[in-house]
């Protein structure tokens, strides 16, 4: 992670973090104290004003990259002085994904069903050494409050956890791996159901039996369509949240693709989008 420092007019330090985006020709410089993010495309810089709440959401995710941050914790961090609904957080996550060119792949800011969101540490830029540079072209709004920011660190994967994950893959297959990764630490009880459709193994996740049966019934055509498009065995997880079906395609190699489908569009989702999730 590249950490750059500058100063505000009253000499208070700020922090800049360099992030990769979903575009190979673009990197982002995030200034949490200024609530802004600069997109650098081959030397052409576009300055984006994230606003207080959007900046605070991204700031909290970057404080612990690779760890899941609960939705309630993000709401408290970004709207500590106000009571807002889940829709406000959904909108900020959507906006951040758009800015980072991550709205389709959802690899940078990842959704963990029933748990929260996680910033993928692979999209933090690691410096070649500990040298720091100076940034002099950023000027904040003097009237804006300045949140305290602690620069995150990239954590080395725990070898024991890696061994457990590998064993799960061998013994339980794709479904076991996905279940271990996403649901072993779920704090609130959930119900799951499994179904094999062709070469596709689907795990449905809901809070109660009624919602679980409704989810399976309403997505039966989607499951059949996914099975027809799948070119190899694959594990899927499917659940409903805030009017959207969230589909997680767990690849045999271990990585996963994400797709969010509004319930009104489930019968009209383009096959190309489904293929991208499956592959």
Task: Supply the key terms.
279 residues; alpha+beta; Arc Repressor Mutant, subunit A; Heat Shock Protein 90; 2 domains; 5-stranded antiparallel sheet; 5-stranded mixed sheet; 7 helices; 13 strands; 28% strand; disordered N terminus
Structure description:
The chain is an alpha+beta fold and 279 residues long. It folds into two domains: 3-123, Winged helix-like DNA-binding domain superfamily/Winged helix DNA-binding domain (Arc Repressor Mutant, subunit A, Orthogonal Bundle), CATH 1.10.10; 159-278, Heat Shock Protein 90, CATH 3.30.565. Helix content is 32%, strand content 28%. Strands 1-2-3-4-5 form a five-stranded antiparallel β-sheet, with no helix packed on it. β7 (109-112) and β8 form a beta hairpin. α1 crosses α2 and α1 packs across α3. The longest helix has 25 residues, at 159-183. 27% of the residues are buried.
Whole-number tally of structural domains: 2
Shape: globular
Strand order of the largest sheet: 1-2-3-4-5
Low-confidence stretches: 1-14, 127-157, 162-189
List the helices and strands and how they pair.
Blueprint: E1 3-7, E2 13-20, E3 26-31, E4 36-41, E5 44-49, H1 51-63, E6 69-70, H2 71-78, H3 86-99, E7 109-112, E8 116-119, H4 159-183, E9 191-197, E10 200-206, H5 209-218, H6 220-229, E11 234-241, E12 244-250, E13 256-262, H7 271-278
Parallel strand pairs: 10-11
Antiparallel strand pairs: 1-2, 2-3, 3-4, 4-5, 6-8, 7-8, 9-10, 11-12, 12-13
Helix pairs in contact: 1-2, 1-3
